[in-house]
Amino acid sequence: MLSQGVNIETAIMPFKVQQLVEVLMEKKQFGFEDAFHYLYTSDCYQLLLQEDTKLWYMSALGIFELLEEEKNAGKTANRKLLLFYAFCLEKYKDFSNLLAEEVLLLFRKYSVFDYLRDGFEVLHTQGENYILSEIDLFIKTQKK
Asked: Which of 5, 13, 59, 112 is deepest in the core (most CB within 10 A)?
């Protein structure tokens, strides 16, 4: 049983951070201090803290990919865009009945994150069904 004031997300965070630090140490060849710094200075970490993103349910490798996307974008990835990516990934997961890792691989393979970034100004103002239809159409077009 969790103590008063502690919810499941708060209880998960130390484990998720530990997993991410291990992935960073392995993939980036960081020492643990550098790995913690890399994670804690990211917008991605801030999204992990937000209950509405439910980012902690993604695999450590999935979150690592989002973190790398942020860091590789010249460290200028804005929070709204990362939240939009997470929203699209999570909603498309439900829409397509795939696992989050499968959707992440699909998004990477067909450059969906680039599509979402390039169309962000228009797409983020649309409804969920429209966004999911556009993503699905984009992936089908890319497959051809």
From this structure: 112
